[in-house]
Design a protein that fits this description.
The chain is mainly α and about 110 residues long. It has one domain: Tetratricopeptide repeat domain (Serine Threonine Protein Phosphatase 5, Tetratricopeptide repeat, Alpha Horseshoe). It is about 80% helix and about 0% strand. Helix 2 runs antiparallel to helix 3. The longest helix is centred in the last third of the chain and has 18 residues.
């Protein structure tokens, strides 16, 4: 996993505006259980391409792992809206499931 992270970081040094590389790096950090860095990378994706629904899904998951349910709920809601406006139904369905579970477990995040 470390080799993949190193390779993705090198790609970003060459092209820091590549949202897809930021996204892959965020996923790699998530898989390595480095959720704080996953958040940094996935927030960069949203800054660079706010219409990319998958970034919201992974960012919400990362916030949940960091025990930030309010942030996760907010990101899931934004992601659902963006997904539905752009016709990306699968990410919307996934985030609806995540949001429903999150709110059941953390009703104060409403």
């Amino acid at each position: 996993m470390s080799d993949m992270i190193d390779a993705l970081q090198e790609l970003l040094r060459e092209n820091p505006q590549d949202f897809e590389t930021h996204f892959m790096l965020g996923q790699a950090y998530f898989d390595a259980a480095d959720y704080a860095r996953a958040v940094e990378s996935l927030e960069a994706v949203i800054r660079l391409n706010p219409e990319f629904p998958a970034a919201y899904r992974w960012l919400g998951n990362s916030y949940e792992k960091l025990n930030r349910p309010h942030d996760a709920a907010s990101i899931y809601r934004r992601g659902i809206d963006i997904s539905e406006r752009s016709g990306w139904l699968q990410p919307s369905k996934e985030m609806r499931v995540f949001l429903k579970r999150l709110l059941r477990e953390n009703p104060e995040s409403e």
